[in-house]
Protein backbone atom coordinates (compact mmCIF):
# COMPACT_ATOMS: atom_id res chain seq x y z
CA UNK A 1 0.00 0.00 0.00
CA UNK A 2 2.94 2.30 0.69
CA UNK A 3 4.20 1.81 -2.87
CA UNK A 4 0.75 2.71 -4.23
CA UNK A 5 0.83 5.92 -2.19
CA UNK A 6 4.18 6.84 -3.74
CA UNK A 7 2.88 6.03 -7.23
CA UNK A 8 -0.09 8.34 -6.62
CA UNK A 9 2.32 11.00 -5.36
CA UNK A 10 4.54 10.80 -8.45
CA UNK A 11 1.56 11.05 -10.82
CA UNK A 12 0.16 13.91 -8.72
CA UNK A 13 3.43 15.79 -9.17
CA UNK A 14 3.44 15.03 -12.92
CA UNK A 15 -0.08 16.44 -13.16
CA UNK A 16 0.99 19.60 -11.35
CA UNK A 17 4.01 19.97 -13.64
CA UNK A 18 1.78 19.60 -16.70
CA UNK A 19 -0.63 22.22 -15.35
CA UNK A 20 2.18 24.68 -14.68
CA UNK A 21 3.68 23.99 -18.10
CA UNK A 22 0.32 24.78 -19.67
CA UNK A 23 0.03 27.99 -17.67
CA UNK A 24 3.48 29.16 -18.74
CA UNK A 25 2.71 28.21 -22.35
CA UNK A 26 -0.49 30.24 -22.24
CA UNK A 27 1.31 33.26 -20.79
CA UNK A 28 3.46 33.41 -23.92
CA UNK A 29 0.62 32.80 -26.41
CA UNK A 30 -1.15 35.68 -28.14
CA UNK A 31 -4.51 33.91 -27.96
CA UNK A 32 -4.51 31.82 -24.76
CA UNK A 33 -6.84 28.85 -24.77
CA UNK A 34 -7.01 25.88 -22.44
CA UNK A 35 -5.97 22.83 -24.41
CA UNK A 36 -6.83 19.21 -23.84
CA UNK A 37 -3.55 18.76 -21.95
CA UNK A 38 -4.79 21.22 -19.31
CA UNK A 39 -8.01 19.27 -18.82
CA UNK A 40 -6.16 15.96 -18.72
CA UNK A 41 -3.64 17.19 -16.16
CA UNK A 42 -6.40 18.75 -14.03
CA UNK A 43 -8.30 15.45 -13.99
CA UNK A 44 -5.05 13.63 -13.13
CA UNK A 45 -4.59 16.04 -10.22
CA UNK A 46 -8.14 15.40 -8.97
CA UNK A 47 -7.99 11.61 -9.27
CA UNK A 48 -4.53 11.19 -7.80
CA UNK A 49 -5.37 13.60 -4.99
CA UNK A 50 -8.37 11.44 -4.11
CA UNK A 51 -6.11 8.39 -4.31
CA UNK A 52 -3.63 9.99 -1.94
CA UNK A 53 -6.37 10.75 0.56
CA UNK A 54 -7.65 7.17 0.27
CA UNK A 55 -4.22 5.61 0.81
CA UNK A 56 -3.45 7.85 3.79
CA UNK A 57 -6.79 6.93 5.34
CA UNK A 58 -6.22 3.23 4.67
CA UNK A 59 -2.73 3.33 6.21
CA UNK A 60 -4.09 5.15 9.31
CA UNK A 61 -1.95 8.20 8.63
CA UNK A 62 -3.24 11.57 9.75
CA UNK A 63 -5.69 13.28 7.42
CA UNK A 64 -7.22 16.68 8.17
CA UNK A 65 -10.69 16.44 6.63
CA UNK A 66 -11.27 20.19 6.30
CA UNK A 67 -7.93 20.69 4.54
CA UNK A 68 -8.58 17.82 2.15
CA UNK A 69 -12.07 19.15 1.45
CA UNK A 70 -10.71 22.57 0.50
CA UNK A 71 -8.07 20.98 -1.72
CA UNK A 72 -10.68 18.80 -3.42
CA UNK A 73 -12.91 21.81 -4.07
CA UNK A 74 -9.94 23.74 -5.48
CA UNK A 75 -9.03 20.81 -7.76
CA UNK A 76 -12.65 20.54 -8.94
CA UNK A 77 -12.62 24.29 -9.69
CA UNK A 78 -9.47 23.87 -11.79
CA UNK A 79 -11.16 21.04 -13.71
CA UNK A 80 -14.21 23.26 -14.28
CA UNK A 81 -12.07 26.13 -15.56
CA UNK A 82 -10.09 23.83 -17.86
CA UNK A 83 -13.33 22.24 -19.11
CA UNK A 84 -14.76 25.61 -20.23
TrEMBL record:
Membrane-traversing stretches: 6-25, 37-54
Protein's recorded name: Integral membrane protein
Domain of life: Bacteria
UniProtKB keywords: Membrane, Transmembrane, Transmembrane helix
Species in which this protein is naturally found: Streptomyces kunmingensis
Organism ancestry: Bacteria, Bacillati, Actinomycetota, Actinomycetes, Kitasatosporales
Amino acid sequence: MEILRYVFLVFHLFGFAALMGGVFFQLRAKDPVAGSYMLTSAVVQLVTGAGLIWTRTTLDLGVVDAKMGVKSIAAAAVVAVAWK
